[in-house]
Specification:
about 90 residues, alpha+beta, three-stranded antiparallel beta sheet, about 35% helix, about 25% strand
Length: about 90
């Protein structure tokens, strides 16, 4: 069983403004100076996927997420289940 401190909560969303870019926010890593802004951006966007990654190996998981965002932002379309499949063991 993982404790709250052993995982990182994240959300992948699409900006609804001009760019329509996909972005990720790691909620549990936000600091006081950027927390409100980042949460507001995510809330204003179109939800695509959310979950938790394990703290152990989170850098590798973040690289995988960055790759998925690049694919999405380059026009590739896939279902959120693809994110779950690709992240696999990194999900908490």
């Amino acid at each position: 069983m993982l404790f709250e401190s052993d995982k990182v909560m994240f959300e992948i969303y699409r900006e609804t403004g001009y760019t329509g870019q996909f972005r990720v926010v790691y909620f549990t890593e936000l600091q006081d100076h950027n927390k409100e802004t980042e949460i507001n951006h995510a809330m204003a966007g179109e939800h695509f996927f959310d979950g938790f990654i394990k703290n152990f190996g989170k850098d590798e998981a973040k690289e995988i997420i960055d790759g998925l965002l690049s694919r999405l932002n380059n026009g590739e379309r896939f279902e959120p289940a693809e994110i779950e499949r690709v992240l696999g063991q990194h999900l908490a």
